[in-house]
Amino acid sequence: xxxxxxxxxxxxxxxxxxxxxxxxxxxxxxxxxxxxxxxxxxxxxxxxxxxxxxxxxxxxxxxxxxxxxxxxxxxxxxxxxxxxxxxxxxxxxxxxxxxxxxxxxxxxxxxxx
Amino acid sequence: xxxxxxxxxxxxxxxxxxxxxxxxxxxxxxxxxxxxxxxxxxxxxxxxxxxxxxxxxxxxxxxxxxxxxxxxxxxxxxxxxxxxxxxxxxxxxxxxxxxxxxxxxxxxxxxx
Lengths: 113, 112
Fold this sequence. Notes:
The structure holds two protein chains of two kinds. Chain A is mainly beta. Chain A is 0% helix and 53% strand. Chain A has no helices and eleven strands. The termini of chain A are far apart. Chain B is an all-beta fold. Chain B is 0% helix and 56% strand. Chain B has no helices and eleven strands. Chain B has strands spanning 4-7, 10-14, 19-25, 32-38, 45-51, 56-59, 62-67, 72-77, 86-93, 100-102, 106-111. In chain B, the strands form two sheets. In chain B, strands 2, 4, 5, 9, 10 and 11 form a six-stranded mixed sheet that branches. In chain B, a hairpin with a 2-residue loop joins strand 6 (56-59) and strand 7. Chain B is globular and about 40 Å long. The N and C termini of chain B lie far apart (41 Å). Chains A and B meet through strand 5 and strand 10 of A and strand 5 and strand 9 of B.
């Protein structure tokens, strides 16, 4: 498995502002993903964070709203830009190890007021 | 793209009984099927997985079965305990390291 940490664990933000979430892994991983999970809902993939190239975004998510950085194989950031109350959610990073197994970070609980 | 459906959305069982959660998928190229358990306020935890070259896999009280022809897979929990109460998600992936498609989740309650 992998030890994954996220910062911050939670935050309350004003609408119109931006928040950057950090994800740190204790080992080098090729595949890293960012998900959103709204209360009582399933996990929705936002994007695949690619090391050395631009992230790959899923339908409905755009780089201007959710810019992602992946400077190396152990770290990534997701920024939620120009926030609105609809962005209130839990944001989770995940990594894939041993070819298939996917493990999740503890999540960042975001509330936008 | 892949579409994963999961049933039931909620499930209540008496302690000691068995629980079964079923998922179907649409993309015949999917070859990896993990199950996650998510307790309230916690991250999803991988509990068991199965690859397409295997029909069944068991780990103590939990087992997963896969029917590739019918494109469905199931999670079986035997001798349920209150600590099994959680939301369970199935997922499917087309290839190693590719994105995962998640089911909508099943909220399992084990009644003591």
